[in-house]
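Students often ask what a holo structure prediction actually looks like on paper. The answer is less mysterious than it sounds. You provide the chain, you provide the ligand, and the output is a string of C-alpha cells encoding the 3D arrangement of the protein together with DOR.
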Amino acid sequence: MGILFSQVKLARPEQNRCWDVLIIGREIVAIAPQLQAEGQLVIPGNGRLLVPGFVDLHCHLREPGFENKETIASGTRAAAKGGFTTVCAMPNTAPPPDTPERLHAIAERIAKSAVIPVKLVAAATIGRAGREATDAGALKAAGAVALSDDGSGIQDRTVLSAVLSRCAAAGLPYFSHCEDESLSAGGIFHDSWPIAAETTALARELSVVKETGAAYHLCHTSSGESVSLLEEAKSLGLAVTAEVTPHHLVLATEDIPDWTGLYKVNPPLRPRAEVEALIAGLNREIIDCIATDHAPHTAAEKALPADEAPFGFSGLEVAFAALYTKLVKKGRLRMERLLSALCREPRRMLGQYCPELGLKPGDPADLTLLDLDKTQVVTAESLVSQGKNTPFIGHILTGWPQLTMVNGEIIWSDKEFGR
Ligand code: DOR
Ligand code: ZN
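The corresponding C-alpha cells follow.
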C-alpha cells in the first residue's frame, strides 16, 4: 500500500521540476520524476510544494483550566490545518505543569485527544509565581522539552539564577518571556509599554546566562534593540536562540485600525522601524525561528474594553499565509529562509532529526503540502481553533497549506482539495 504524492514541487531551488514522492509506513521511500502507482492512494500534487512539516515551539492549548478558550483537540486540529506536524504547549494552564505528576496528567490528555504530536514545556517556577524554581531534572525525566513561565517573566534575578542553574544541570533549555513588569505595568499597547520592558529584562537575563551556561531561548522577540543584544550574546558564544512571531513580523503599530482588545498582544505590536529590524534579524539568522505564540481567547473576552481584554492572537492557521503573502511575495524574506525558520530550526532546537528542505528517501513522512497560488480571505468561520481572535480576519492572503501528514498518515486536508 502506501501513499503516492504525484507531481509535487520540492524545495530544491536548483531543480524547478515536479517529482513523485512515495510514502510507505512512516517514511519517504522513493523520490523520482515518475513512479508507477501500484495500489497506492494517489494524491495529485499538480505542482504544489511538498515540504517538511512545520514545528511550532510556542503555542497555548489551554488545557487544563481554560477549555472555554481552546482544547488540546481543537488546538491541535488548528495546528494541523496550519501545516504544523509538531507543537510545543506552553505551561500557563490551571494548574500549571510544575511537577512531574501535573506534567504526566497533561501528557495523558494529549495521548487521548491530540491529532498531532505535542511536546510539553513545563513551568519554571512553582505555580508560575516567580518565587521558587521547579525541579528541572525531574521535569525533564517526566518528558518536558523546556522550562518557561511564559505569560509572565521571572522578575527576581536570584530566582532566575536558580532556574537557569537547574536548567543547565538538567540539560533543558529555558524559554524566556522577557518582561520587566516595573516598566510594562498597566501597559496595553506600544504607547504605554516601552520596548525597555523587554530589553531591560533581556540584558539582565543574558548576564545570568553567562554565569550559568544555560541554553536560553528568547520568546516573541519584539524589538531591534533585542536583536542587537542577541547578536552580542551569540558572538560571545553563549547558547542563545530566539523566535519571532508572524504578527510581530507582519503587523506594525501603524497598521492598528482601532485601539480595541482584538489588537492587544504581549509583547505589543511595535512601530514599523522595529518590524524592519525583526525582519533583518530573521534574514541574518540572529533570530533563529518563527513561532506562532498561538493564544486563543473567547470572542467575549476579546470584545471587552481594551484595558480589560486579555493579550493574545489565535495564530496557528494563518501563520504561513500571512508570512508568505506579506514577506516572501513582497521580496522581504527568501522562501528558503521562511521554510527553514518553520521547518528546520525548531527541530534543531528540540534535538530532533532535521531533514533538508528538499527531502530525501529515509526522511520521516511528517509533511505539509502547500498551494502557493491559492488566495483566500480569512474569516472567523474558516478557523477550526476555538479562538477566532486574529487581527488577520478580513485579510486576503495567498499561500495555504492543503494537506498535513504525520507519521505517514493524512491528519488534515483542505475540503476543496481534489482527491
Ligand atoms: O499575548 C500573549 N498571550 N502573550 C503571552 O505571553 C501569553 C499569551 C496567553 O497565554 O494568552
Ligand atoms: Zn506565549
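The domain at 52-349 is CATH 3.20.20.140 (TIM Barrel).
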